[in-house]
Design a protein that fits this description.
Layout (H helix, E strand, L loop, with lengths): L1 H47 L9 H40 L4 H33 L6 H39 L2 H18 L5 H26 L1
Helix pairs in contact: 1-2, 1-6, 2-3, 3-4, 4-5, 5-6
């Protein structure tokens, strides 16, 4: 009975984690699209003012996109919270019930490490761009910094993708194998297809749909387990 109660609690926590991920996806997407549009419109407006007006610099463009960048950062923070404080503890608890979830628990750690490396690379890239704009880094240093930060962000991205597969795609198939809800299988397939699309620069939407399906399936599983426990 204690094992079943622990399992239900873990699934409920996992369900809440996917709810946070859906909100995080919406915030990061809105922030990224808004920032891109702000940058394009700012540069376009500057170009339309006449030949005597130079294009805006990095700091001016960053100011125009600042509200959307803040929204993007908030979404990223929500995603990190979802994985670190909801999904990871839930996978650890499920691994105690069913050892096959151990790979999913390990995947959350890999995802967090990769995301941290990517964020560090992105922050360093922004710092390199600002230093090049202000002239604080003389000589060829800005180019070397740019290449180094791009490499760091790329490494973090690859590590995060590996963790994503282990946590979400494998996790969805493990949940389907244990609880039999076909929505888990559908979510796992969507995660896999979206990963392939990501390599083509088209990914993102199917992962959102997968998160929604996981949330629905987990709530259904929790209700069924609670009903069977009461009966």
């Amino acid at each position: 009975m204690e094992t079943r109660a622990e399992e239900v609690l873990a699934l409920g926590r996992l369900s809440s984690g996917f709810l946070y991920l859906v909100a995080a996806w919406a915030a990061t997407t809105a922030g990224a699209v808004g920032a891109a549009l702000a940058l394009i419109l700012s540069a376009h407006a500057a170009a339309d003012t006449g030949a005597g007006r130079t294009l805006p610099g990095v700091r001016e463009l960053a100011s125009a996109a600042l509200p959307f960048i803040a929204l993007l950062v908030a979404g990223a923070a929500a995603a990190i919270y979802a994985v670190a404080c909801r999904i990871r503890p839930a996978m650890r608890a499920l691994a105690r019930v069913d050892g096959s979830f151990g790979v999913c628990h390990a995947g959350t750690a890999i995802w967090l490490i990769g995301t941290g490396i990517f964020a560090l690379g992105a922050a360093a890239l922004a710092a390199a761009a600002l230093s090049a704009e202000t002239g604080l880094a003389p000589g060829p240093q800005p180019l070397s910094l740019l290449l180094g930060t791009l490499a760091l962000a790329a490494i973090g991205g690859v590590v995060a993708v590996v963790g994503h597969v282990m946590t979400f795609a494998v996790g969805a198939f493990r949940l389907h194998g244990r609880y039999g809800n076909s929505l888990y299988m559908a979510a796992g397939i969507l995660y896999a297809v979206d990963l392939a699309l990501l390599l083509l620069g088209l990914g993102g939407v199917l992962t959102l749909v997968g998160h929604v399906l996981m949330r629905i399936a987990l709530r259904d599983t929790v209700k069924r387990l609670q009903s069977s426990t009461l009966s």
